[in-house]
Each structure stands twice: as structure tokens, then as C-alpha cells.
Amino acid sequence: MLLEVKNLRVHYGKVEAVKGVSLSLRQGQIITLIGANGAGKSSILKAISGLVRPSGGEVLYEGRRIDGQPPNRVVEMGIVNVPEGRRLFKLMTVRENLRLGAYLDRDSRRVADGIEEVFDRFPILREKQHQPSGKLSGGQQQMVAIGRALMARPKVLLMDEPSLGLSPKMIDEIAALIVELRKAGLSIVLVEQNANLALHLADHGYVLETGSIALEGPSDRLLSDPEVARAYLGA
Amino acid sequence: MSDFLQMGLTGVSLGLMYALIAIGLTLIFGVMRIIQYAHGEMFMLGAFVLYYWHAEMGLPYWAGVAVSAVVIFGLGAVLQMVLFKPLHGKNILYSLAVSLGLVLIISGSGQLIFGTTTKGIPSAVSGGVLLGGAYLSYERMVISAVSIALIVALWLFLRRSVTGLAIRAVAEDPDTAALQGIRTGRIHWIAFGLGSAMAAIAGCMMGTLLSIVPTMGFLATIKAFMIVIMGGLGSVVGALVGGMILGMIDSVVTTTISGDIALILSFVVIFLILVFRPSGLFGQNWD
Ligand SMILES: Nc1ncnc2c1ncn2[C@@H]1O[C@H](COP(=O)(O)OP(=O)(O)OP(=O)(O)O)[C@@H](O)[C@H]1O
Ligand SMILES: [Mg+2]
């Protein structure tokens, strides 16, 4: 197993946001976490990234415990987070945002190549590279956010609601990109409120309700589950 | 005409020194979101390091400026790690109380150790040039040039170097900065050290142009805050522009009318700027 979360708990003060969640991600797989607002999806990703300290449970990466490690160590190991709402450095240029994605990379040659690779993937960003990233459209900002994460040359990508606030056309593009990234060998944890999209992309899905997993299984089975259809697919 | 040249150069050199202090303060605020009241004390200590190095021990002036910058960088970094780091993320009132305490401790022990008499730092450059009836000292010109060079160097550092980008990233969004692999704790002490060193260098220059006393930090802090509020919290360009405005008012109005009027006018200008631009000339809206 590449990444394994066992019985994870996250508290904010007295409030328990994640109540013993277990997940597993195999090499080359896409898993998805779906659930309503406030279910605890982002908290799980933040705990994996080391941004919040779990109050219980374990996170294992390639068999080693990584919970309690600071975010820079987690990034160094190859787990990179594309945060909810993109969270670009809006006052900084597109290029500077991409450069920061490779902050830990001491090889300036590889960093320069990485920026070119992102520009090849998203040609519009080459044109806008010197503009403040905050001036870009939502879809372009999502490209920068994903490009910035790819700059770290990750093995695991944690994507928090990449479709949020995007046009249907842009959502299709992001979906195609996710498929492509998986083909390129990345393993992905995809958090989504758009359950239909997420389950079509993922191999395995987890349905989160107020901090606990209510249901899990292969995506096609969840897609045909009447409960899921009623609660999350708007059927 | 000659008077204006004279006042202009005085205003510029004064403004640049104010800007150095204020840029240091705004850097510390931008990255850590704390109000560092003891910033003026770093300015004062920086001047005294140069005083002991150059005036007392007779060692070379410019090396002394560098030593002062390094020593105060170290002091700032240590203060951050020991005092402010444990308070990070807690109520801002805690760090406020600590920095106010530092003001009392540092300026109090400064008076005990350095004595309360006014001292001067002999200058490294002598002579000057008469230009249209105005006497422009080389010292003032060199000091202004050094201030400009430092501000440009800092600006380039923040734009071009990876550490500079990281400083700006932490200032804008610390969590997302951490997700890029940036150790935010390290950026905190670097920014605190750098900001303090800027104040120290300004102290060296002020001590050379005017004179030094252990209580001089207080007014420096007030001026720095006036500038930072005018220019916009966290903005380096704002601090530069704000510094120049304040320097010019101080120079021109003090010479032509009086120092009291200069201070009043400064507050009027700040008030007007804030009426039209509540977050300062170049400010962002910090939440
Ligand atoms: N920093 C915080 N401090 C206190 N409570 C928090 C904090 N972050 C999240 N919470 C709470 O924890 C719970 C889970 O939040 P989380 O952001 O993980 O949910 P989510 O599933 O990602 O929701 P959304 O779909 O809205 O992004 C919510 O009740 C939220 O209010
Ligand atoms: Mg969320």
C-alpha cells in the first residue's frame, strides 16, 4: 500500500471533525472522498499533509509512519496538496507561484525544466507568467494550483475540490487532466462535492458523513448504490 | 534656491533612514503579524554597536556598520525564537505585551550600561561641496547612497531569491506556504533578523549624522509606525514612499517653521491619506 490512513482523528479544540477514518491508496490508483459541507474531507487531507496534527490514528506512507511530521517533510517525501479554493499567492506572479512549488528542489536546472513542462501542459500560463496570479480566471488559477503542485514532482497528489467554482467546460478539462496524471504514474486522493464527477474518475470511493465513513466501495458500485444516488448524485 | 537644495538633501537622507527603519518594521509585521514595539530599540542598539566599535575602539567605520547589522540580525533572530515563537498563533496581545516589555528592558538597561549623556559617532567621510550656495556634505550623500543601495538590495532579494519569494509567500498565506515545503518557522526568524538589521543600519547612519542616546528608540518606533500606517502595512514600497514624505516634512517644515509644526503636519498628512485610502497608500486589506 502506498498511502494508508488508519483510524484518523482530528480535533479543533473540543470539536471532533474527523472521527476515526481509514483509507488506503495503492500505487497508480485514484481514490475519492465525497461528502457534504463540513464532513471533514479537507481536515483529512490537512492531516496527511501535516498542516493539522491528528489527535489519534496513524498515517503510513510506503509503510512508514508520517503523522506528526511537519509539512515540509511530507512534501519532501512526495505527497503534495492542491488546497481547496486553489490558494494561490495572489500578489505574486504565475511564474513565482510555480517556482515556489519547487521550493525544496535545489537543482535549478530541473526547476527551470519543470516550469517549461507546466507551460507545455497549460500554454495559456506561458502567456500570463508575469501577471499576478490573482488576476487570472478561476480555471486558469486552478491550472496554476495544479502546476505548482506538479513542480514538486510528487508521487501522491492530494486534490481538494479541484472542480469548485469552475465552468462545466473547465471541469471537463480538469477531469481529463486528472486521468492524464494517473496515466503518468501519479496516485491521487481526490476530494469532491461533485460526487458524480469524482466517482467516474476514481477507482474507489469513500462517503464521509460528519467525520466518519458512512459507505465505501469500488466507484461503479457506489455509482449504482441507491443511497448514494439519492444523497449525492441528485438523482 | 540654496535653502531648498539644502532642505531637499536633508529631507532625502532623513527620509531614506526613516524608510529603512519602517521597511524593517513592515517586513516583521508582514511575515509574522505581530506589532514589534521594540523595533526602535534595535535601531538604538545598532547605533551603539557602531559607537563602541568605531568611536571607542577605533576600528574601521564601514566594518562597524556591517558588524552592527550582523549583531542585531542575530539579536532579532534570537528574540524571535525565544520570545515570539512560543506566542505565535496566540492572541496578538501577548506578543504586544512582550514587545512593550522589551522596550522598557532594553532602553532601561541601555541607560545603565551606555550612560545617559549624548554621544556622537565620528563620520567616515569628510568634506562637501558648495552647490548654488548650499553646502552639501559628502557624508550625507554617501549615507543616502548607501540607504538607497540597501533598499534596492532588499527589494531585489524579495523579488529574485528563493528565500525572498518564500518570505513573501509566508506573508501572504502561511499555510499554503507550508504546503510548498517552506519551513515557516525559519522564515520567521530570518524576517525578524533582517528587519532588525535594517533598523540597526539606520541607527548607525542617524548616529553619524546626528547623535545618539539610549532613549532614542522611542521616537524611531513612533516614526516607523507613522510611516508604515501611511504607506500600508506590509508594503515595502509604501514604507519607502511614506519615509520620504515624513523626511521631507521634517526637513522643510522644521527648517522654515518649527519642529512642532512638522510633527502636527505629519499627523495631518497621515490623517488625510487614511481618509482617502484606509489601508494606506500601498496597503492590502489584511484580514
Ligand atoms: N481551523 C478550524 N477550526 C475549527 N473548526 C474547524 C477548522 N477547520 C474546520 N473546522 C470544522 O471541522 C469540520 C470539518 O471541516 P472540513 O473543512 O474538514 O470539512 P470539509 O468536508 O472539507 O467541508 P467543505 O466541503 O465545506 O470543504 C467542520 O465542522 C468545520 O467547521
Ligand atoms: Mg473542504
UniProtKB/TrEMBL annotation, chain A:
Name the keywords, alphabetized.
Amino-acid transport, ATP-binding, Nucleotide-binding, Transport
Q: Is Aminoacyl-tRNA synthetase among the key words of this record?
A: no
- ABC transporter domain boundaries: 3-235
InterPro entries, sorted = AAA+_ATPase, ABC_transporter-like_ATP-bd, ABC_transporter-like_CS, BCAA_Transport_ATP-bd_LivF, P-loop_NTPase
Is Nucleotide-binding given among the entry's keywords? yes
Q: Which SUPFAM superfamilies match?
A: P-loop containing nucleoside triphosphate hydrolases
* GO MF term list: ATP binding
Q: Which Pfam family is an annotated match for this chain, by its short name?
A: ABC_tran
Determine the domain of life of the protein's source: Bacteria
Q: Which PANTHER family match?
A: HIGH-AFFINITY BRANCHED-CHAIN AMINO ACID TRANSPORT ATP-BINDING PROTEIN LIVF
Annotated family: Belongs to the ABC transporter superfamily.
Q: What is this protein called in UniProt? A: ABC transporter ATP-binding protein
Organism per entry: Shinella pollutisoli
Automatic annotation (TrEMBL), chain B:
The residues forming a coiled coil are: none
**A Pfam entry, by short name:** BPD_transp_2
Q: Which keywords, in A-to-Z order, does the entry hold? A: Amino-acid transport, Cell membrane, Membrane, Transmembrane, Transmembrane helix, Transport
Mitochondrion listed as a keyword: no
Topology with respect to the bilayer? Multi-pass membrane protein
> Where in or outside the cell?
Cell membrane
Highest taxon listed in the record's lineage:
Bacteria
Where are the bilayer-spanning segments?
12-31, 61-84, 91-114, 141-158, 189-212, 224-249, 261-279
Primary location recorded for the protein, binned into one broad class: membrane
Q: Which CDD domains match?
A: TM_PBP1_LivH_like
* Family classification: Belongs to the binding-protein-dependent transport system permease family. LivHM subfamily.
Q: What is this protein called?
A: Branched-chain amino acid ABC transporter permease
Q: Which organism is it from?
A: Shinella pollutisoli
* Source organism phylogeny: Bacteria, Pseudomonadati, Pseudomonadota, Alphaproteobacteria, Hyphomicrobiales
